């Protein structure tokens, strides 16, 4: 009996060890994943469907040449889709946008699609984890969140200029994500709406040397909040991000805002000291 008991105990210990080893092995192979359900859409041979995304499109992949897809002219966030031939077999469409998100579709054919235009809001059809963007590619969702934070952050600057009852003022400069975030306020004190046409930023020499043209170095923004028309007696904040920079003492930073179909152009000039007043966001 003692021998039997010893054998039984030995067998139980072996079984426990074996099961424990298998459990550890299973845990080692455990992979977390999530199914992304595609959205079903129908397209026609004679009509164009429009998919409107909250951020610019950076990649489109068609499961079949039976569907045609292109970005709309003049709009980076609108994808136009239609059938390349009638009655094709169901296929798929994948779209990646600048906020590092994947949108997945199942595409079928219909002579008369019930829906032609679909507009997506933020946080719609998101992947379980963000798409990894190429090196140097800006994540527009993250930058949009930073811009919102800059708008809400404290204002500590008051550089300003006026033109025909329209005032442009620089309220703050914050540093975040290797970029400098300029928070402007445009106040329209007239009764006529003010619509910005363009915003330029460039660095130039303070003094012009005789017989020498003034050299201007354009600065390209990495992000800006879309701006719209400013109603009479209204105001608007515009946040623009540029790669972090400084300027020499003998140069100045110039911002120019032109009015669409109007003559109220605004020019704001800053020296090197103004740029050095930048603060860390959420400091």
Major β-sheet profile:
6 strands, mixed
Low-confidence stretches: 1-13, 21-27
| Structural shape | elongated
List the helices and strands in order: HEEEEEEEEHEEEEEEEEEHE
Strand content: 35-45%
Characterise this structure.
- The chain contains three helices and 18 strands.
- The protein is an alpha+beta fold.
- The protein folds into two domains: 39-135, Immunoglobulin-like; 144-280, Immunoglobulins (Immunoglobulin-like, Sandwich).
- It is elongated.
SSE layout:
Blueprint: H1 2-28, E1 39-43, E2 49-52, E3 57-62, E4 67-71, E5 78-83, E6 91-97, E7 101-109, E8 117-119, H2 140-152, E9 159-163, E10 166-176, E11 179-188, E12 196-205, E13 216-218, E14 223-224, E15 235-243, E16 251-259, E17 266-270, H3 272-275, E18 279-280
Parallel strand pairs: 1-7, 2-8, 10-18
Antiparallel strand pairs: 2-5, 3-6, 4-5, 6-7, 9-10, 10-11, 11-15, 12-13, 12-16, 14-15, 16-17
Primary descriptors:
Immunoglobulin-like; disordered N terminus; 6-stranded mixed β-sheet; alpha+beta; 18 strands; 4-stranded mixed β-sheet; 3 helices; elongated; 283 residues; 2 domains
Tell me briefly what this model is:
This protein is of the alpha+beta class and 283 residues long. It has helices at residues 2-28, 140-152, 272-275, and strands spanning 39-43, 49-52, 57-62, 67-71, 78-83, 91-97, 101-109, 117-119, 159-163, 166-176, 179-188, 196-205, 216-218, 223-224, 235-243, 251-259, 266-270, 279-280. The strands form four sheets. Strands 9, 10, 11, 14, 15 and 18 form a six-stranded mixed beta sheet that branches. A four-stranded mixed beta sheet has the order 1-7-6-3, with no helix packed on it. It has a four-stranded mixed beta sheet with strand order 4-5-2-8, with no helix packed on it.
């Amino acid at each position: 009996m003692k021998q039997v008991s010893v054998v039984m105990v030995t067998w139980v210990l072996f079984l426990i060890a074996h099961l424990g080893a298998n459990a550890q092995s299973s845990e080692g192979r455990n992979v977390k994943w999530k199914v992304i359900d595609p959205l079903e859409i129908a397209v026609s041979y004679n009509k164009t469907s429009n998919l409107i995304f909250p951020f610019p499109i950076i990649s489109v992949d068609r499961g079949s040449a039976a569907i045609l897809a292109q970005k709309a002219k003049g709009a980076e966030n609108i994808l136009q889709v239609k059938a390349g031939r009638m009655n094709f077999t169901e296929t798929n469409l994948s779209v990646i946008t600048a906020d590092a998100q994947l949108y997945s579709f199942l595409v079928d054919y219909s002579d008369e699609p019930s829906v032609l235009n679909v507009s997506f809001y933020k946080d719609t059809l998101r992947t379980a984890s963000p798409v990894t963007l190429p090196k140097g590619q800006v994540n527009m969702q993250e930058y949009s969140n930073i811009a919102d934070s800059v708008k809400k952050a404290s204002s500590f600057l008051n550089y300003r200029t006026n033109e025909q009852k329209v005032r442009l003022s620089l309220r703050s400069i914050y540093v975040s994500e290797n970029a400098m975030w300029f928070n402007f306020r445009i106040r329209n004190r007239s009764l006529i709406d003010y619509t910005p046409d363009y915003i330029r930023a460039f660095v130039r020499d303070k003094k012009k040397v005789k017989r020498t043209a003034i050299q201007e170095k354009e600065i390209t923004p990495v992000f800006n909040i879309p701006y719209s028309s400013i109603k009479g007696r209204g105001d608007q904040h515009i946040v623009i991000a540029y790669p972090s920079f400084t300027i020499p003492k003998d140069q100045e930073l110039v911002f120019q805002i032109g009015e669409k179909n109007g003559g109220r152009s605004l020019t704001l000039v800053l020296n090197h000291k103004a740029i050095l007043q930048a603060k860390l966001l959420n400091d």
